[in-house]
Write a structure and sequence with these properties.
binds 1,4-dihydronicotinamide adenine dinucleotide; alpha/beta; FAD/NAD(P)-binding domain; globular; 14 helices; 24 strands; binds flavin-adenine dinucleotide; five-stranded parallel β-sheet
Amino acid sequence: FRTIRFLWRLTWLSALGGFAYLAYHVYDSKNPPEQLGFDPTKKTLVILGSGWGSISLLKKLDTENYNVIVISPRNFFLFTPLLPSCTTGTIEHRSIMEPLRHIIRHKKRAVQYYEAEATKIDAERRVVKISDFSDIKGTVSETEVPFDYLVVGVGAENATFGIPGVREHACFLKEIQDAQQIRKKVMDCIETATFKDQTEEEKERLLHMVIVGGGPTGIEFAGELHDFFEEDLRKWVPDIADKFKVTLVEALPNVLPMFSKALIEYTEKTFKDENIQVRTKTMVKKVTDRSIEVEVTQADGNKVKETVPYGLLVWATGNAVRGVVRDLMGQLPAQKNSRRGLAVNDYLVVDGTEGIWSLGDCSATKYAPTAQVASQQGNFLARLFNSMARTQAIENELYQLDQMRQAATGEEEKARLTAEIEHKGRSLSKIKQLSPFEYSHQGSLAYIGADRAVADINWFGGVISSATGGELTYLFWRSAYVSMVFSLRNRILVLTDWLKTKAFGRDDLNRI
Ligand code: FAD
Ligand code: NAI
């Protein structure tokens, strides 16, 4: 009985603890604290971008030490791992957006935000030129922002490799607007295919969803599309059931090159079961408004050209360097051999500059351009800036103590000050010993449809690694992503969306 009573109390205590935690976070999120104002004695730190890298930095940065300015055309943080789920309405887009205003209002010192794009970084004059490209503009829509320190976290743009027709006819999957566009187009294709007197050939074209790129973006989108078809479309629009087709086109011999061989095979087999056609060794060469032209490498090495009609085309072939980054690279001779982005040193300082750092997809490091890398780099830079500020503060104190020691007359006072200087000197050298950035790979996860996911996970800092795929991995994928969503509000919204979809199906049948 004692044990039962103990367990009962423990349950109550945990429930109470959980409730208190929830209540505190709800209260805290709705009641931002008083903030410190601009301090002219502090350095100005300008952060470009509001993505994984920049926001991870901002969240951990002690803003008391700097006047911080954030510049980004996007006034929210986007949780990209769940973006493919927004294309079919499994998750609502607002659930994975976190307002930047919420984040900056919770910092100790007020952070200035400008909704704008950095159009040029002048490394020599130490200013960033910014432009407001939003629909509504004031009399001033272009200006310059000076900086003492600059962090470039502008991410990357979609790679098209200059293939004609891609920008005009394909949808991408990087931003929230992309997911919304796909969402609209899928349903538009379906409603148009069922238009009166539509020919069979045209129906087939309209209902052919083609995805180019067998990286994780293309794979996850294909999985979501399959679920939408199987769980909703098949039931509500039965006339299209035998014609709806998903094809994934990949130039390399296999999809998901970053995963282990077993998981690649598992994914390809699952796609076969899901009736998703995977066409490897097939490179897209040209895109028109209704078809793609591909070059297929056959088993004997011969290359054959083919035209593939499509209704919806989603282009997911990785990253390219943004214009503003390319321009900065052009200003710096130290960057002349870098191709994939800004070359940085072990502390993420942009090669050839002083006081300019870069992180995430716009920097060129030995790591893959992932959210995991960008957020760890953001955390690293926050530690670096916090320790730089502490170093500065201690150096100022040391200077003052030294002045006092020189002015002191009594031996006792001199000895006391010397001891204090030595003590502070020791803590200063400890703070200065910040080791270079080191990435700790936690593993890779991808959703592949039909309630299955694949995972190459490193446990305990890489001591144990496991490669798994299936339904259990899918549950792991869900819990891992929900725990990674930054705020409690978004976590609750994502969970509610999943429940809503399970209970009532997807909202996507409405074409808004
Ligand atoms: P981003 O997050 O892209 O942020 C860039 C920011 O810069 C944005 O706020 C943008 O508006 C802003 N910006 C752009 N131009 C300018 C400018 N000129 N001036 C100022 N600001 C500018 N990675 C994983 O590790 N796991 C996953 O599961 C995963 N899933 C993904 C799913 C999808 C669909 C996609 C597209 C990517 C996924 N990734 C994933 C990759 C991950 O999203 C990126 O690696 C990550 O976003 C990079 O972070 P970043 O801060 O460098 O750039
Ligand atoms: P990617 O670079 O990983 O894959 C792009 C694929 O497109 C490549 O396999 C390439 O061979 C193929 N390709 C290129 N040109 C082609 C052409 N003309 N015709 C046919 N195929 C062509 O790009 P992706 O998927 O957009 O990912 C970008 C980054 O984001 C990667 O680093 C990835 O790891 C990360 N990411 C991670 C996710 C996860 O961990 N779940 C999800 C989504 C992205």
